[in-house]
Amino acid sequence: MFLHNKKMMYTVRVDRPNPAFAKLLLEQFGGPNGELAAAMRYFTQGWNEPDQKRRSMLLDIATEELSHLEMVAQALTMLLKGTPSDQVDEVEGGYLGDMLDGKADAYAAMSLHSTETVLGGGGPRLTDSSGNPWTAGYVDTIGNPSADLRSDIAAEARAKMVYERLIKTSDDPGVKDTLNFLMTREIAHQKMFEAALDSIADNFPPGNLPGDQKMAHAYFQDSYEGNPGEGSGEATGFDLTQQNSQWGFELDQDPVTHAPSEIRL
Ligand code: MN
Ligand code: MN
């Protein structure tokens, strides 16, 4: 069961309201790499995870992501505090309070930069920063631990990058401190998922079928200067055979003959 502890996981600081930044921050509330998507991704994966210890870790991280969602919600509310959007519901009367008691210009100007949060009545709405509603389509679980953990590692990397870009965009020390905590936790989650993947022996390729071993190490070099097959073609692609890689690639430079087949009608 979930219990509501009214302490935050980390003290949320916002030094001054900034509705335009609140709009950007919505990306981490209801966006594809945001906290709700992360919580739902790990929550659903946890119930599909056969290993009890990994299941427990997934559900723990899902719970922490909900704590992050709570922090982002508080930051959004503080970023909108005292702004015209906060006052909209205070205004009474006729046509939107006779155009918001003379604050129409400020409201209109702010709305251009923060529609999603203003129309949420000054609170967070479950959209991304462009107003697209949150969708379960952001949860890309396939139901195989080694495939899902790879997806989780990538999801944490993306969440880290979104926080990094938000931090660089902000000039508010309190906001930067809050987001730096959230960004750092996504780094920690990425490490946890990497460790969980390492704990699965023979985790590549995902699933049970090994694939066609003849084709599993071939790199089709299909990038050329000039015309391949006319003597002038020079391969320009990334030469994987020269890389110090565990996979042992073999180069196939002939794009015509590497997978001979016939068209049959
Ligand atoms: Mn998070
Ligand atoms: Mn995370």
SSE order and pairing:
Blueprint: H1 19-25, H2 27-30, H3 35-47, H4 52-79, H5 84-88, H6 96-101, H7 104-118, H8 145-169, H9 173-198, E1 218-220, E2 224-225, E3 234-235, E4 250-252
Parallel strand pairs: 1-4
Antiparallel strand pairs: 2-3
Helix pairs in contact: 1-4, 1-7, 3-4, 3-8, 4-9, 8-9
Bound molecules: manganese (II) ion (2 copies).
Residues 35, 38, 65, 68, 159, 182, 185-186 line the site of one manganese (II) ion.
Describe this structure in words.
This protein has 265 residues and is mainly alpha-helical. The chain has 2 domains: 19-198, Ferritin (Up-down Bundle), CATH 1.20.1260; 213-252, no CATH class. Helix content is 49%, strand content 4%. The chain has 9 helices and 4 strands, in the order αααααααααββββ. The chain has helices at residues 19-25, 27-30, 35-47, 52-79, 84-88, 96-101, 104-118, 145-169, 173-198; strands at 218-220, 224-225, 234-235, 250-252. The strands form 2 sheets. It has a two-stranded parallel ribbon with strand order 1-4. It has a two-stranded antiparallel sheet with strand order 2-3. A hairpin with an 8-residue loop joins strand 2 (224-225) and strand 3 (234-235). The chain starts with 18 loop residues before the first helix and ends in a 13-residue tail after the last strand. The mean pLDDT is 84. Bound molecules: manganese (II) ion (MN) (2 copies). The site of one manganese (II) ion (MN) has 8 residues, from helix 3, helix 4 and helix 9.
